[in-house]
Design brief:
The protein is of the alpha/beta class. It is built from 14 helices and 16 strands.
């Protein structure tokens, strides 16, 4: 797919004070340099029934291995790597590996099945696809086998937790650390901040999904605005129950915490009962999600509400109307500041109430 975006110099100049002029991979590299031992990710893998914890150093090493593996499988700058994964560390690592080598990350919601994926893989001209072997009892790899004959440009399919030639682990992780020579080649692939970074689909009003393109400048500017306006700092721990493949999770559950070199905590399958103890155990202080997520937390039994109340301080609510009573209950029963946000996949968060607003 050719990403022929229209970005005249006048637009670049007009946005100079808003666009940071760097890449997500630059933020990760900075975090690895300054805070290698700090926890980067804590997540629950429902398939393995185990918690996964990674430091920034460990995450950086895995990103480099995956980036090298993508190059070895022929991925060139501006080619699309699609991944349909839950909120697992592999999603984060694939995103940053793509950015490392100038490939375009194409996150896809795990709920998409054959009909949607035929269109999305074809339209985006995906060269590599990564799926879970199994998720919520569904065999994603078998689904890809069924539709692959209709996708002539798809070169490789890998499954997290898979086996044989389709094993993601064997292809990208079961290898020595990246050598100095390989790191030099990775550095040579460093893209520009106005190159396309992300291809993400949003609901189509005319029957087919719309493909939205974002650059490093547009996604990082959105995350930086949250940091400044809410505010959020490196002292915060970010909890994310919204899917990473939705722009909410992508921007504010991945890019923002890594920008701050802080800890991100994730559930791969939303459950308020599971969220409450995890929030307390990891000291999560910030989260963002639509109204149903907040409603689920408010309606927990008092003991569980106490776990949320112990550390969570800010909830940005977006995606649906927010009943006044829900905000009042969140404030009195969870001691939460609820901030109302409105945005779009195309623009991220556009308007938000701030704690300092009257």
């Amino acid at each position: 797919m050719a990403f022929d975006i229209w970005l005249p110099q006048s637009r670049i100049a007009a946005s100079a004070k808003l666009w940071p002029g760097r890449l997500p991979i630059d933020d990760l590299d900075a975090a690895v340099r300054t805070s290698p031992a700090r926890t980067a990710f804590v997540g629950w893998n429902s398939v393995l029934q185990q918690q996964i914890r990674l430091s920034y150093e460990e995450l950086g090493q895995r990103v480099d291995k995956i980036a090298q593996g993508l190059i070895e499988r022929g991925i060139r700058p501006a080619e699309v790597v699609a991944f349909q994964l839950p909120n697992w560390w592999e999603f984060i690592a694939l995103l940053y590996a793509c950015n490392r080598i100038g490939a375009v990350a194409n996150p896809l919601m795990p709920i998409f099945l054959q009909r949607e994926l035929r269109f999305m893989f074809s339209f985006g001209d995906a060269r590599i696809v990564v799926v879970p072997q199994s998720w919520r009892g569904f065999d994603h790899l078998e689904m890809l086998r069924q539709i692959r004959p209709e996708l002539p440009n798809l070169q490789h399919v890998f499954a997290v937790g898979g086996s044989g030639e389709h094993s993601f682990e064997s292809a990208f992780l079961d290898r020595p650390a990246v050598t100095a020579a390989e790191k030099a080649k990775l550095a040579a692939r460093h893209p520009a901040p106005n190159d396309v970074l992300e291809l993400i689909y949003t609901s189509g009003t005319s029957g087919e999904p719309k493909a939205v393109m974002h650059t490093a400048n547009t996604v990082l500017a959105a995350a930086e605005a949250f940091v400044a306006d809410i505010p959020v700092s490196a002292a915060d721990v970010v909890f994310m129950g919204s899917p990473y493949a939705h722009q909410t999770g992508f921007l504010y559950g991945i890019l923002m915490p890594i920008m701050l070199a802080t800890k991100s905590v994730a559930l791969d399958l939303w459950s308020a009962d599971a969220a409450a103890p995890l929030i307390k155990a990891e000291g999560a202080s910030f989260s963002m999600g639509s109204t149903p997520f907040l409603s689920d937390l408010v309606n927990l039994p008092e003991t569980a509400r106490g776990q949320v109340r112990a550390t969570l301080r800010t909830w940005v609510c977006a995606g649906a109307p927010i009943p006044r009573l829900l905000v009042q209950r969140a404030r009195t029963e969870l001691e939460l500041d609820v901030l109302s946000c409105w945005g779009m996949t195309e623009n991220a968060g556009l308007t938000i109430t701030r704690k300092r607003d009257p």
